[in-house]
Specification:
Elements lengths: L26 E5 L6 H11 L3 E6 L11 E2 L8 H18 L5 E5 L7 H10 L3 E5 L10 H9 L3 E4 L17 E3 L20 E5 L4 H4 L1 H13 L4 E5 L5 H9 L3 E3 L9 H8 L4 E3 L3 H11 L6 E2 L5 H10 L2 H17 L2 H14 L4
Parallel strand pairs: 1-2, 1-4, 2-3, 4-5, 5-6, 6-7, 8-9, 8-10, 10-11, 11-12
Helix pairs in contact: 1-12, 6-10, 8-11
Amino acid sequence: MSSPIASGPGLPEGLLTYPCRVASPLRILHAPLNIAGGPEALSAGLNELGCDSRLMVFTRQPFRDGSDINLHLRQGGGPVNLALNLPKQAYALGRAIPNYDIFQFHFGVTIVPKRINLPLLGRLGKGRVFHFWGSDLRDAPVSKWDYALRHADAAVVGSYAILPRAPRAAGWPDYDVVPPGINLETWQPAVPTPGKTIRIVHAPSRRRSKGTEAVLEAVATLQSEGAPIELDLVENTPNDQARLRYAAADLVIDQLNVGWYGLFSIESMALGKPCIVRLDPEAIAATEAAFDTKIPLINADKDTLVDVLRGLVSEPEQLTEIGHASRAYVEAVHGHTAVAERMLDVYRRRGLA
């Protein structure tokens, strides 16, 4: 790394930490949101591979404080906040331009308004990457992203499941798939060895979207049959306490509605836990072909959950086997350096590295 230089009084945290370098490794700025820790993990992985990567955020997000540069912007809309925030954003962009080769925008948000940010970076020969995280792109009209993607050098999505529901238009780059990353150094496996009672964990952020009522009904049905199971419903719990409860699980149920897995399934697999989640069959096939591995997640929806649970309870030794496979899968597909390798391949194929 370069030697640090002083940052002036009142300047955004971390903004002037490192000077512009000549003949340096590939320099990437991720901005301006740390979605579920994904940009943070990707940036860390790129650094481990020899890049010079930084994460800039507008403000600290709950439970996520892994940024290198924090602009401490005021939250909420309105003309007053806009007037106070925009100069900070413009200053941050101006200082960043000479220090980075690639600007990777997460969740479709640029540092300053797109119609200023994107043409400016293009004229200066900087790489412009849009990295989507699901709800920002899924079923969106072409008009929402037309300007941005006509001025982008690459567009990244996190799974094959979103591709059928992603908008497309002439002049846009094709979508590249780079799965979300996780830093496995902070997730030690605790593969289950079930005892007399199988402990099931379900941790809904929103009950309706996760299918929680179906989970409760399925567990109650099996308990009425005498199945040796108990449910730990984790809600409104601090992250450190929740992780301890996840680690004690024999089986995790993520969600039964969406059709693909997200961060909670990834974290569960990192702990070596078998995880039930609804998966789209075509996305399974595409993912397994692309990454040359089998997805160890257990596929179920609200209509099949009782039967799936009944089968697992009748042969609990499966849970240990699936737990080991789950950790191996996360290491191969979602480990932060594995994800960074795939991101570097995108940069190269798109002529940015």
